[in-house]
């Protein structure tokens, strides 16, 4: 009887877990990016767009969560796991709302968005917020999905601090496989002491914007944003790679030299779009 009860309780626990993942939710994740003055026309801006259109995969999420818990021996954040097992919605239209013309792009085979738009000064003013950031609404037509995008303006006479995240402002311990998994999927992200105060001082002193580089995949951005807000780091653009299951494995993704390539490309983007 005791064995039957144990099996029943185990079944109920698994059933409740699966039920929590049951509904396949679609989402559109936009990672804050940047816009530069068009070097060929000061009346225009070049807006860099980055994001991901996805659908959650409930069954894969269950298996990944339970498998990783066996490895790290800790309870994991289910919402983070869901983002890594979601599937990209390929070749779908994504459009900026609120303009007098159609401004659209399409997701790639992984559901990712990575392109540029040319926006006039007048159009930019429609979305401009106090300070040097822009908020705009993006829609996935026929998907019934809308979300807000955020762009930080890198003007010719401004200052942008470009900062790494991993083990610079956030404790990641990317040299340890187990610690990387623990710090990625469980508990609150931990800040490097004193760095938030330093960055806020730079923001006040230089009226600066910030751009953050990280080896973390963009699936983690919503949780990084929670970290920025909680620790009171200045908001800014985030420049991240995208993880797919075609990558060798999760740890290899963090350790791969592809991160150096992405960082170099981001630095080149800033240099090429800045008047000197």
Kindly describe this structure.
InterPro entries: APP1_cat, Mg2+_PAP. This is Phosphatidate phosphatase APP1 catalytic domain-containing protein. It holds the Pfam family APP1_cat. Residues 159-272 form the Phosphatidate phosphatase APP1 catalytic domain. GO terms for molecular function: phosphatidate phosphatase activity. With 276 residues, the chain is an alpha+beta fold. It has one domain. The protein is 37% helix and 29% strand. The chain has nine helices and twelve strands. It has helices at 2-20, 58-72, 78-85, 121-127, 177-185, 195-206, 221-231, 250-255, 258-272, and strands spanning 26-30, 33-38, 41-55, 87-88, 93-96, 104-106, 112-120, 133-140, 145-154, 160-164, 209-217, 237-241. Strands 1, 2, 3, 4, 5, 6, 7, 8 and 9 form a nine-stranded mixed sheet that branches. A three-stranded parallel sheet has the order 10-11-12. Strand 5 and strand 6 (104-106) form a beta hairpin. The longest helix has 19 residues, at 2-20. The model is unreliable at 1-12 (pLDDT under 50).
What are the salient characteristics of this protein?
APP1_cat, single chain, nine-stranded mixed beta sheet, phosphatidate phosphatase activity, 276 residues, disordered N terminus, Phosphatidate phosphatase APP1 catalytic domain-containing protein, Mg2+_PAP
Topology:
Layout: H1 2-20, E1 26-30, E2 33-38, E3 41-55, H2 58-72, H3 78-85, E4 87-88, E5 93-96, E6 104-106, E7 112-120, H4 121-127, E8 133-140, E9 145-154, E10 160-164, H5 177-185, H6 195-206, E11 209-217, H7 221-231, E12 237-241, H8 250-255, H9 258-272
Parallel strand pairs: 2-9, 10-11, 11-12
Antiparallel strand pairs: 1-3, 2-3, 3-4, 3-7, 5-6, 5-8, 8-9
Helix pairs in contact: 2-3
């Amino acid at each position: 009887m005791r064995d039957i009860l144990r099996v029943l309780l185990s079944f109920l626990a698994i059933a409740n877990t699966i039920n929590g993942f049951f509904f396949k939710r679609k989402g559109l994740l936009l990672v804050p990016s940047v816009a530069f003055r068009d070097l060929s026309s000061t009346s225009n801006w070049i807006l860099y767009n980055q994001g991901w259109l996805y659908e959650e995969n409930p069954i894969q999420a269950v298996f990944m969560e339970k498998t990783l818990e066996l490895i790290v021996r800790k309870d994991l954040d289910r919402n983070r796991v869901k983002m890594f097992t979601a599937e990209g919605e390929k070749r779908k239209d994504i459009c900026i709302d609120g303009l007098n013309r159609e401004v659209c792009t399409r997701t790639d085979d992984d559901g990712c968005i990575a392109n540029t738009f040319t926006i006039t000064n007048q159009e930019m003013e429609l979305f401009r917020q106090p300070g040097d950031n822009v908020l705009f609404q993006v829609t996935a037509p026929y998907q019934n999905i809308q979300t807000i995008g955020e762009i930080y303006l890198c003007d010719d006479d401004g200052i942008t601090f470009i900062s790494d995240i991993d083990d610079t402002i956030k404790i990641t311990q990317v040299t340890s496989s187990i610690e990387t998994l623990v710090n990625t999927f469980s508990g609150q992200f931990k800040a490097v002491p004193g760095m938030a105060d330093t960055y806020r001082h730079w923001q006040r002193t230089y009226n600066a914007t910030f751009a953050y580089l990280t080896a973390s995949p963009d699936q983690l951005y919503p949780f990084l944003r929670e970290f920025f807000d909680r620790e009171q780091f200045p908001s800014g653009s985030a420049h991240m790679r995208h993880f797919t299951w075609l990558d060798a494995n999760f740890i290899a993704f963090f350790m791969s030299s592809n991160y150096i390539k992405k960082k170099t490309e981001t630095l080149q983007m800033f240099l090429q779009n800045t008047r000197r």
